[in-house]
């Protein structure tokens, strides 16, 4: 069952996969016009996120043609300077790594078509003689997986899953891995891939750690002095408390083996400076590198890929975006060069809150339209009502799921024993809060006798809904 397993297998600890042009796929509601939205409009967009307890606080930055606005909500609204609050930005780091790679190309340090094996001291797998090239790593087309196969089963701290994973362990996995297809032929999101880009940049190009390279080539020149991998004590004092998807306080992540895939921390103020540079690079030393990173280097059925950016098209607009998630934070970054417009959302909780809010603020900014929130607000159902849904459900292809009640909540259990809570947002419609991209929905359908007959698992955006038949209590 692709919708469930793609979201709740490895993805529970992955850095967040970004959206593509599906940002604007929903039915539009009227709004005034394209342009920077008012504080009241943004507040209305954010309301379901706070009412539904998707986060305790968010900071949002909007940029258009030289003009900026910052909005803060929830627990962060009363901060004296919310634009300077520090968050983990997770996989938005990949946009910086892609830009640093483009910078190295412009400087003549390497070529995108270089085989990875030319720049590392370990064995790199190939497919029928076709090598993994740097451009494949930066566009998620290397055929390397998101994380190593044993990443979740090995002994680790679930609140800091990358913290104990060493570079030597990653190398051992890569050397032994058998590529399932030719590199450059299919998109498959890979933290390993971008981690390897970071390694090449550290060891073969800039000859320093990635944090120092980011600072020297990107952050300091763009006056992004609060964007770092390792926080100074003053920055740590401004670090927002992170939360799990269920709003339990949690700590930050360490990613020593592959910092290029998701280790940066930043602020809305710094990210607005980054957006400005991406949309108006003329006059910066990064102009050529920025333009190279924004080019489409791979085109697949779901959209294109720049160097770190995911790229979609909507009419005359090119939509470049990425999202990020760690154990306690989520982020969303989107720009449209044709509109000189961009959005950054930083939230203090894991899950899909930054994408849910960010895509709607982004839509309002560049199209002047609105859509219903994708973040549901939960309702309360009595235990007797919940009991109607318990039982086993058989899906096509031999997949089965079981619905269990534990006190006042329902749990969805896979055949492998993985359990996740599902929350009601209507009498027969439930959602999964821990989804790493957008909420996944499950709807129970009644038969003619009034008893629950089917469980519909809605699409993750890549496949059609799947219908499971109730097979027993």
**N-C termini distance:** 21 Å
Rg (CA only): 22 Å
- Quaternary structure state of the chains depicted: single chain
Name the CATH homologous superfamily of the largest domain: DD-peptidase/beta-lactamase superfamily
User: Tell me about the biggest sheet?
Assistant: 8 strands, antiparallel
Q: What is the strand content?
A: 15-25%
Uncertain spans: 1-31
Overall description:
The strands form four sheets. An eight-stranded antiparallel β-sheet has the order 2-1-12-11-10-9-8-7, with helices on both faces. It is built from twelve helices and 20 strands. The two termini are 21 Å apart. With 473 residues, the chain is an alpha+beta fold. Helix 3 packs across helix 6. It folds into two domains: 31-367, DD-peptidase/beta-lactamase superfamily (Beta-lactamase); 383-472, Lipocalin (Beta Barrel), CATH 2.40.128.50. The chain is globular.
């Amino acid at each position: 069952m692709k919708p469930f397993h793609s979201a709740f297998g490895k993805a529970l600890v992955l850095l967040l996969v970004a959206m593509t042009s599906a940002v604007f796929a929903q039915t539009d509601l009227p709004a005034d016009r394209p342009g920077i939205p008012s504080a009241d409009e943004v507040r209305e967009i954010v309301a379901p996120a706070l009412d539904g307890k998707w986060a305790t606080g968010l900071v949002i930055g909007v940029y258009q043609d030289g003009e900026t606005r910052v909005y803060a909500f929830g627990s962060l609204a009363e901060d004296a300077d919310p634009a300077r609050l520090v968050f983990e930005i997770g996989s938005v780091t990949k946009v910086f790594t892609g830009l640093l790679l483009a910078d190295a190309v412009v400087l003549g340090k390497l070529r995108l078509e270089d085989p990875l094996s030319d720049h590392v001291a370990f064995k790199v797998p190939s497919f029928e003689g076709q090598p993994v090239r740097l451009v494949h790593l930066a566009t998620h087309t290397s055929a390397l997986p998101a994380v190593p196969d044993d990443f979740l089963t090995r002994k680790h701290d679930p609140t800091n899953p990358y913290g104990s994973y060493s570079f030597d362990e990653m190398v051992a996995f890569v050397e032994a891995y058998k590529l399932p297809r030719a590199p450059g032929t299919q998109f498959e999101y890979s933290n390993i891939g971008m981690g390897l880009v970071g390694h090449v940049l550290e060891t073969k190009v800039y000859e320093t750690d990635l944090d120092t390279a980011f600072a020297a080539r990107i952050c300091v020149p763009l006056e992004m002095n609060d964007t770092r991998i390792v926080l100074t004590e003053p920055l740590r004092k401004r670090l927002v408390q992170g939360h799990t998807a269920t709003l339990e306080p949690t700590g930050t992540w360490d990613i020593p083996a592959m910092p290029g895939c998701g280790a940066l921390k930043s602020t809305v103020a710094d990210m607005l400076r980054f957006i400005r540079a991406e949309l108006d690079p003329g006059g910066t030393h990064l102009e050529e590198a920025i333009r190279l990173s924004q080019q489409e280097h791979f085109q697949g059925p779901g959209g294109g890929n720049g160097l770190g950016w995911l790229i979609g098209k909507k009419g005359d607009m090119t939509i470049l975006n990425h999202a990020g998630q760690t154990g306690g934070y989520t982020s969303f970054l989107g720009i449209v060069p044709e509109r000189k417009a961009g959005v950054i959302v930083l939230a203090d909780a894991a899950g899909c809150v930054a994408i849910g809010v960010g895509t709607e603020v982004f839509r309002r900014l560049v199209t002047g339209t609105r859509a219903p929130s994708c973040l549901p607000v939960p309702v309360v159902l009595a235990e007797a009502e919940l009991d109607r849904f318990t039982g086993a459900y058989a899906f096509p292809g031999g997949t089965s799921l079981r619905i269990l009640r534990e006190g006042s909540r329902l749990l969805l259990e896979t055949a492998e024993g993985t359990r996740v809570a599902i929350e009601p947002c209507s009498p027969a419609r439930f959602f999964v809060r821990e989804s790493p991209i957008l909420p996944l929905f499950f709807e129970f359908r009644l038969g003619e006798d009034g008893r629950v007959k089917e469980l519909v698992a809605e699409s993750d955006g890549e496949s059609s809904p799947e219908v499971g038949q109730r097979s027993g209590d």
